[in-house]
Amino acid sequence: MLPVCAALLWPVSGYAQVTESRLSEWLLAHPPAPDDYPLGLSWRVPAEIPAQNLLRSNLLYHLSEDGRARKLPSETASRLYAWVALLPVTGRVPVAVADARWLQANLARDPVLQSDHNVVMPARPRTVTVITSAGQRCAVAHSAGYKAMDYIRVCESQQAGDWAWIVQPDGKIQRFGVASWNLEAQDEPAPGAWLWAGDWPEKLSEQLATFLATQGIAPDPDSTSDAEVVNDRSGVTLPPPADLSYRDMKVTASDWGSAGLLQSPTARMRPAGDFAVNMTRTTPYTNLNVFVQPFDWLEAGFRYTNVSNQLFGPAIAGNQSYKDKSIDLKFRLMKESAKLPQIAVGLKDISGTGLFSGEYFVASKRVNDFDFSLGIGWGYFGARGNLGNPLGSDTRPTVDTGQGGSFDFRQYFRGRTALFGGVQYQTPWDPLIVKLEYEGNNYQHEPFGNNLKQSSPWNLGLVYQLSDSVDVNFGVERGNTAMLGITLHTSLSKMSVPKLSDPPRVAVAPNRPEQKPDWAATSRDLTQQTNWPVQSITREGNDLRVTFMDAKANYWGDRVDRATSVLHRDAPAEIEGFTFNYSDSSAAPVLEQHVDRDTWVAGQTSAQPPSAQGVAVMDRAPTRPNPDEQLYQGKRPMLDGQLGMDFNYNLGGPDAFVLYQLAATAKGQIRLNDSTWIQGGVQFGVLDNYDKFNYDRPSNLPRVRTYMREYMVTSNFTMPNLQITHTGNLSESNYYSLYGGYLESMYAGVGGEWLYRPFQSSYAVGVDLNVVQQREFSQGFGFIDRNGLPNYRTVTGHATLYWDTGWNDLQATISAGRYLAKDSGITVGLSRVFSNGVKLTGGFTKTNVSAEQFGEGSFDKWITISIPFDAMLTRSGSTVV
User: Fold this and answer.
1) Exposed e or buried b for every residue in 269-290, given b needs 16+ CB within 10 A?
2) End-to-end Cα distance, the chain
3) What is the DSSP letter of 515?
């Protein structure tokens, strides 16, 4: 056991030695004594001292008179300045876990100790150190079961801030909400932790926490020098822990799917990437709601509402009840703070028939386990109409539900209003949540005159959380009607499955091989590890170049690491780097990456202090190869094919709510050369219910997509695709493709596309032109004859801008041109792509076709969710969405 601030020197010879001195070896050679404190182990690297000196200088500047924020009292700043100025610059680097066996099993986290490194094993401390809002240090005896504020209250006469900062003995920095409005689940401070809750600028707290993380444990009062004297409260008996529920506030779904109470929304938002499917039944309405959270400030949802006491309409629909489609949006305008509520604005049914349309402003404020909301609503949310309109007209235009789907800006925030609101209470029994609300609808202005009796405007509901992903809802609404619902929710942004079926990784050794490689075996291992076929392996000086074909993946970095581990195992010792050249399915080079061998190996085989960390993998534009030696030449298979199943479906039609087809498929490809191929597929229908699809309606436009029934039921055996494609490069950044044949199930033709895509640019531009004609319903080789005009034919073409905005992983596409129905217009799409490949997309197409000509929906619009197989399967795939 070593006293605080003492050090052991563990001399280590150069990195090139076969036997390296690692921290795990030091720990095994020096078993901890009973009083030692492995959690506070300090690995000190002199090379880190310059960077930490700069960190301390910046911190001192922000505590000085010149750099001090107005929010920080001068006396507090002076005390902190004097203290920080006396703290040493240690060069400490965090250690993942101070357990020798764990480090040996995780070499990338096991530091290699150099001759000038120090290792400090402190004695176990008895206290935690609170930094008060006045800038003083206060030692409090550590006790299990106490949270940060329990210690802070011993040293502070009143709560000093809404956030508690903890610097744990291992250097981990944490920040937790500790006020009534932001309480959250939190870890306990460990012995030797630093903590504070001063109402200081966040940047200052971040800098202070980062610097204190380099200090090691907060010392006990009796082991400090005169310059570090603290208020010693270590002998004070701690009062019982504060009776606070340190729980995160739970956001649950309303009857309409949005984050809310029952009939009413709140200003709350789910975390970015969350996805929820919610079904509720409150007679006569059954809602099927699908809601996504692309950003933490935006909630978007799609809904089908079944009105059980109204028929769909056309006689052909039989007894099917009415189905209404709608889209909702909610925007957060202001985050909650200590004094102010969270505020949001929302629009419901903004682009459907408008039968349930409404708009609102709502504010939410949390007080411990209670979350209060109060809002003002228009339309469906304010149908009680007992208040005037603070934004203008008290008259709301009558809804025209003829076509539906248009944005009627004349209605938004128009008409008389009503207040709504309520409270959500998290009971002491964690799975149970209680909701009480006052709603603004009196049910005397329902769609179709379907007015309902309301005995009370107060609604009461319960949410029982069966698991982290399943909520069951019960309630009594209108004072006379039962509500039942269920919500399934998950995080799309975190969706992943351990890749247990992937091949084992190739172990990375610190040393380079001496044996001569078998490049054919290396190629096989590269393909096995990455799922990318190897086209060639060449040598250029001291660099090894591998060209991959059909390279695509969601977790690209993982594939690069797997490929590099194979090359490091096999490449001769004199090879200093690896270059990976990637081409897509058209054989066009799309990216090149260079891997520095030593830097990559060091990062894989030991924990690196920041001063030693280098850039191991660098992206660069594809370069023309100039090989000194051809080591391996692969060949793209001439024939390729696969069997599978397809599932096609349509929702919300008058014949049946769900129309579906399950089909067996066979797809194949013949490669004529790297840039020219023939692809095709056949399909056999196994199971479907499209025989129910009888509803037909005259069209004011060419029927370019409305013969779906005929294409689905005319023949069980079909040929959806058979085409030839040729691609190439006109110059660097300029690509083209030409194609012709039976392009899809409904159309055949010829076309081409030009794409300008500068390397690492945030934008690309494409232009396509196609001449197509409509295929026969059996999807054979013929074409249909319609209205005496054989072979409906048209020319389509678009110019498209692709833009990666660089903001919150948002991608945009804007296309303008001519469509299949010979109309012209524009298509806009916005996509949020998460790191696991999940993509949320919303968009619309508006052409010179009027809403009356277009028919139901007024114009095309969509919300889509694309989930790659990588996120759901135990084996990595080679597809991206």
Assistant:
1) bbebbbbbebbbbbebbbbbbb
2) 56
3) S
Rounded CA gap, 340 and 343, in Å? 9
Average pLDDT by stretches of 10, the chain with 881 residues: 36 33 91 92 95 96 86 91 94 94 93 91 94 93 93 86 94 94 94 93 95 94 61 84 84 96 97 95 95 95 90 68 89 95 95 85 96 96 93 77 62 91 95 97 92 96 95 96 96 89 91 90 95 92 92 88 96 95 77 94 92 91 86 87 82 73 91 91 88 72 83 90 92 91 95 92 95 93 72 92 92 95 94 89 88 70 83 74 50
**Cis-peptide into 284, omega within 30 deg:** yes
Would you call 26 helix, strand, or coil by DSSP? helix
Helix ranges (DSSP H) in 478-571: 519-530, 556-570
Q: What phi and psi, each to the nearest 5 degrees, are found at residue 81? A: -60, -50
For tokens 């929304």, name the residue.
265
User: Phi and psi for 47 in degrees, rounded to 5?
Assistant: -65, -15
Distance of CA 129 to the CA centre of its chain: 37
Report the alpha-carbon distance of residue 235 to residue 248 in Å, rounded: 33
Three state DSSP letters for 637-684: CCEEEEEEEEEEEEECCCCCCEEEEEEEEEEEEEEEECCEEEEEEEEE
Phi, psi torsion values for 834, nearest 5 degrees: -90, 165
Please state the pTM of the whole predicted model. Answer: 0.88
CA-based torsion, 142, 143, 146, 150: positive or negative: negative
737: tokens are 């493709």
> From the DSSP assignment, how many helices (H) and strands (E) are in the chain?
11, 42
Three-state SS letters, 396-428:
CCCCCCCCCCCCCCCCCCCCCEEEEEEEEEECC
Distance CA 257, CA 273 (A): 16
What is the SS3 assignment for 811? strand
